[in-house]
Write a structure and sequence with these properties.
Mean pLDDT: 93
Number of helices: 3
Oligomer: single chain
Length: 159
């Protein structure tokens, strides 16, 4: 589901993963795990700081591969850097994060909310990523594609 108005854009992406909610929740709250699955597609990641408590959060860079021609980084030529603050941690069912890009581009400024839920489902756990208040410079289609690619990698990590 995607809204049309860019100032209030949101995306919701879900996938059933054959893993218990507790293990999936940990994959969102451990820096070593985030680096393995969060960078979508051929991107790589690096966690610069991590504090797994409400009010804490992390700073992470996602790097585009050297041969990538279609995308330009939000922070630097081949880098998207984000600052994430944990708003709510409710193991093993829900994580709410306030996410902002480290950027000078006014179209990418602002804080979006990501709510992650882990719900029992036949054969595993349904992981849902709800992004709200996307900055105007983030196309909902691109956000949804990135979320799907990340969830695919999360599934591969467990399946």
């Amino acid at each position: 589901m995607t809204t049309e108005h860019p100032s209030a854009a949101s995306t919701r992406t879900s996938r059933i993963i054959k893993a218990p909610a507790e293990a999936l929740y940990r994959a969102f709250t451990e820096p070593e795990a985030l680096v393995e699955w969060l960078p979508p597609g051929e991107m790589t990641g690096e966690v610069h700081a991590f504090d797994a408590r409400v009010g804490g959060g992390y700073e992470m860079s996602l790097y585009y591969p050297p041969d990538e021609q279609a995308f330009r980084g939000k922070t630097a030529e081949r880098e998207d850097r984000v600052k994430v603050r944990f708003v709510e941690l409710a193991p093993p069912r829900r994580i709410v994060e306030a996410v902002s890009f480290v950027t000078a581009d006014p179209a990418l400024l602002g804080e979006m909310t990501q709510t992650v839920t882990f719900d029992p489902a036949p054969g595993g756990t349904e992981v849902t990523l709800l992004f709200e208040n996307l900055p105007p410079g983030v196309r909902p289609q691109d956000n949804d594609t990135g979320a799907r690619l990340s969830l695919d990698q999360l599934a591969r990590r467990f399946e």
